[in-house]
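pinging the channel bc i need a second pair of eyes. not urgent but kinda urgent?? the chain im working w is below, pasted from the shared doc
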Amino acid sequence: MLPPKNPKLVCDNFLDQHREILKSLNKLGKVNIVGSYGIDVMYDLDIDIHVIMNNFDLKKIYDAYSTIIKKENFYQSNFINTHDFIEYRKLIKSKEKMLAYLKGVYIGFIHPVTKNLYPLKMDIWIYDKNHTNSSIDDCIKYTKMLINQPSKKKLIVKFKKKLFDENKRILHFGLNGKKIYQGVIEEGIENLEELIKWNEKREI
């Protein structure tokens, strides 16, 4: 099953209909919508949110999560506490894995939102202000760099579409959104084969 043709609009409507999510998250700290939704280069229905707390408070996060799932009828939800992993630092083997193993709390929601029940996926990371992560800075940087660059936005979405694995909902050849942004925006790559080769060289 492929994503709908207007993913940004679908996600806009979802957030409007499920206002308790952002309302509860705003009580925890500064909410930053990042990733493809924040940069406005969406192909799949995937919303990434990072919440920065002045002081990490697990109880407040539990309370916010409980409020959300009580008021919103999601198909699936997940709550993972990585903040208290004793061996947390051993999980970090490269900067590329920072997103997968942020030191904080991960909350995930999955919910069918289209007529054919295509699921929207929301990934939320909540962490302390002292925990460094580049996602927010990257979102701001790429958003600014794409101003008045509609052709590059279209190219990014085009690459995502060609690379998309509809069964696993991931991109082929070890590529992800961030790597595509770097290749297209920073390196000026305009050919998919060139993008794949560029990424392979980076992985060596």
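so The longest helix spans residues 58-71. and The beta strands are 30-34, 46-53, 76-81, 105-112, 119-128, 164-165, 170-171. — does that match what u expected or am i reading it wrong
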